[in-house]
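INFO batch 0412 | record 1 of 1 | parsing
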Amino acid sequence: MCDVGQEGAYAEKIAIKADIVARKPASLGHVEAAALAVPGLTALIVIEDTLQLRAGETILIQGGAGGVGSVAIQLAKHIGARVITTASAANHTYVRGLGADEVIDYNAQDFTKAASGCDAALDTVGGDVTQRSFAVLKPGGRAAFIASGSQAPKASRGDVQSLRPNVARDRHHLERLVALFEAGAIRVPVVTRFPISEAAAAHGVSQTCHFRGKLVLVVR
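INFO prediction complete | emitting C-alpha cells
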C-alpha cells in the first residue's frame, strides 16, 4: 500500500520513494488499499502519536463518517477509549458500526452542550468547529486539528493543549497500519468509486465535505 500524497497524479504508474511505501496485504484490494492508506496514516499519527490516547479516556471525533474519522473511531476503540463522534443522522448507523459509543447529530444538536469533560478531541471539519471544540475538553485536555491550516489554532482557554499533527509519510507508520488491519483492529472506510473519466464529478463530491468514507478514482 502506498501514500501517494504530493507525488500523486492521474496516471497509471508513477515513480515514488521506497521509504514511503509498504507491502500491501494480500487480503486487501488495490482500491481498498488506496482508501485506507492516507486517512489511516493521518488517523494513526493523530491518535497514537499526537494525542497519545489511552485506555479509559474519552475522545470527541468531529466528522466521524469521513475517511480520517472512520479510522480514528476504530483506533480509539482498539486502544480502549470511549468515543463520541459527530455525524449527520444518515451516518449514525455507520459510525456506531465502527465503534462509536455516542453519536451527536450536528444538524440537530450543539455538540458543546451534548459533550463535556473529554480528555481529547480530534477536529477533521474546520471552520467554526475548530474553536468550539476546545469547549468540550476538561482541564488538561488536548485537541488535534487537521483542517485548520498548517499551524495549531490558538486555544480559546489556557488550560488545554492545541496540537497540529505532523503527518509525515514513512514506512514505519504504514507498516503499523498494515499490522492493525491484519489483526482486525481496523477495517477500510466505505469506498465510493469513480472512473477516471468522472474525475471532475468526484472532485465536486469531495469539495462538499459531506460524504461517507473515501472517494477513489479507478484508473482502469
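INFO post-check: Residues 25-192 form a domain with the Quinone Oxidoreductase; Chain A, domain 1 fold (CATH 3.90.180.10).
INFO record closed
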